[in-house]
Structures are given as structure tokens and as C-alpha cells.
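Memo to structure team: turn this sequence into C-alpha cells by end of day. - J.P.
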Amino acid sequence: MNTSPTQCHKIAMLDSLDEEFRILADHIKQKASPQHTIEILEAGCGNSWELDLAGVSYALTGVDIDEDGMNLRKSEHQDLDEAIVGDLRTAVLEENHYDVIYNSHVLEHVEGAPLALDNFHRWLKPGGILILRLPDRDSVYGFCTRLTPFWFHVFYKRYLEGNENAGRPGFGPFPTVYDKIVSREGIRRWCAARRLIIRAEYGSNDFLNALGALALPARVLLGVVHVLSLGRLAAKHSNLTYVIEKPVVPSQAEIEEEKMAWQPAAVAPTAGNDGA
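Reply from structure team:
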């Protein structure tokens, strides 16, 4: 897939969270083998692991700066093999170690998000995949989120989406920053600069599903703002999902071996051509 930020083609849309989670689980399962336990890093922990990986051997490590949320996760779900309280921008983890890094709706809350992304790149094993789920700051939804105060985000989650724990310690929403990299163009630029391969890119507007009867007027409002922005703000999607692969870099010995294989064979001199 072309990662040029100037060629953002029409994006494939996901119809539901169930469809999205099934697709992402399938990408992870492709890393499975009978002799290998998949090492997964959940970079920024939710309240529980979101994907069904039944039948796959995996070890799940979680890292998050929110100690209350981490303690809640450990006490209620006990689904982490290792739990680390730390900042994604400064945490020191083993390089080239994880088969999968899963980062779901975290980057919009991180000031200096490129630092976290570069850590993911370091921690990810060559041939491994980085799964990113994030809102697009350059969508109508992202634009409105950046304009509205945090208390409104809590109100929206608690009373429109019906999450009674919204805003309580260990629960979202959390204050948003929306670094410029938290966008379709930003992620594509970052991948291109690091020669990463975008294996899949999806858009979704699943927040509309929580609005019930308000979904239709919300769609109309999205379209109006899209037009008023002269098309700069996306209306069709609010969220982005990426599956990004870190290429396997051949060793120096493999490079030399390949060079030797492509060298032309020496041509033996023929009779009468020996300079006599």
C-alpha cells in the first residue's frame, strides 16, 4: 500500500466494532505457529483485552502511565502476563522484542506522540505488526473534540453513551492533546519516513452507533461541517485503524550472499583468444 501522504486514496470503511476486532485478531493469528508464543505489548491499557485470540498461544504485556487504571485492570480481569506502569514516551523496554504492539485510542491523549510511536518502532520485532486505533484529528469529529472542553467529553460519555463510570479514576475519557501526527496524513508520513509498510488501513464512524435516534442529524451535521471546511475535514470517518509492518532487515551476511549469487560467472578464455 502506498504510504505517500499526498496520495490518501478512498479509505475502506468498517461497519462495526465486531468486524474491526475480528479483522485485527486475524492479523495477529497469522503470526501464530505451534512452536511460538506470540509476544504482544498492549501499549496503553484499556479496562480489558479487546481481541479474541482463542486457540493462539500468546503472552500479553501491558504498559500504561495510569496506575489507577492498571490496578483496576489487574484486580478485575487478571489478563496481563506482565503489567508495567510507565510513560510510553520514556519507558525502556527490550528492543526488537514484540511480535505485536497494540495501541488503541491512546495517542490522542499523548503530548509528543511521535516519541511514543518511535518507541513502538524500536520495541517491535522485524516482521512484527503495529496495530493503531486512533481518532483522526483532521476529521469533523476530531475537529469538534479539539474545540470542546474536557467536561463536555465526560458528559458525552456518561449521558449520551451511557457509561456511568466515565470520568472516574481508572476510566476514560482522558484529556486530549491531538498531536498533528494523530491523523491520516501524519501516520502515513511517519510510516514513509521509517520505511514501514501499511498492510491495512480502515476508517470507521462507530461513535454514531451510540447516538440512537440522534445518529441521522449527526450525519447531516458532519456533512455540513465537511462542506464548510472546503473538504479539509473528513466526514465519512472519525476513527482510523492501521496494521503496520516493520520490515525484516537482511543481515550483512545475507546481503553479501545475495551479491555473490548475482555476480556473473567468470568466462574462461577460448582457444585462439589467448593473445598468441
